[in-house]
Amino acid sequence: MEKPDLQLLYFTYRPKDVYPDVAIALYLLATVVLIVQIVRQKAQFWLYILPATAFAEALGYVFRELCVRKTTFTLYVLMTLFLLLPPNAMALVNYKTVGKIIEQSPARSRSFFLRSRFVNWFYFTSDILSIALQGAGGGLMTSRTNREHGKKIVLVGLAIQLFFFACFLVTSFYVWAKSSYSVAMSSSDSSPLWAKRKVLFTVVATTVLLYLRSIYRIIEFADGYGGTIYSAEWAFYAFDTLIIYLAFIVYMAVPLGSHFVRAKTMPTEGAEEAAPLQFPMEPKNY
């Protein structure tokens, strides 16, 4: 009995071998640039999530390139998971950024949903839930018998993600508009207002890009295995590969690390911690 063509079985088309190579090079470049920026800026360690995510994306395209050459079930599962899940970690960085702004600013909101602990807990939990559902559904979709169940689970995970992205954008715009919230200035900032605009622009722009990518993924999975969107290789590279890389370009062009540096301590024994970074208040009317 003739063995089935696994490439056509899983992809439903013949994927081209040049695109994964280009994606690998671009994402590895982003990994190196982000690491260099974070080290030079002495940024807080949670920002290393960004180069780790870029590296995970590169691995996803390594598995895709291997699948192009010889498709196997294991390689296809690894490719699916590494290309589906890592971008969710970028949302964690944005959640942490806004949580830090709220935590380090002089303003203290009476509303529980604008407290840093709630922002971190609420959005982190939503993202972990979304990652878990997408991972479980993506794994099930590699099985022909469980494909429909896997698709539904992934769609639920993506829908949850879209809802919380929308909530987070509302929170981000509120923090942006409220003059009582401020951001630490970097050496290149002309004013506290400019520093805040840079950081919140990065957060909002990348969140919108992640939102668009999630919409594409919902349409792809809703269209079904073998559907028009699923079978269009150009759509994957345009609405997933390119959109995610545009988000990394924003992170590299407007780095967050210079605004969230590690706390310094005095080198002498028994000395107290150096004074924390000062966050100048912005003018109230702008």
TrEMBL record:
Keyword terms of this UniProt record: Membrane, Transmembrane, Transmembrane helix
Membrane topology: Multi-pass membrane protein
Transmembrane spans: 18-38, 45-63, 75-97, 118-141, 153-177, 198-219, 234-254
Record's GO cellular component terms: membrane
Location of this chain's protein in the cell: Membrane
Matching Pfam families: RTA1 (PF04479)
Descriptive protein name: RTA1 like protein
Provenance organism: Coemansia spiralis
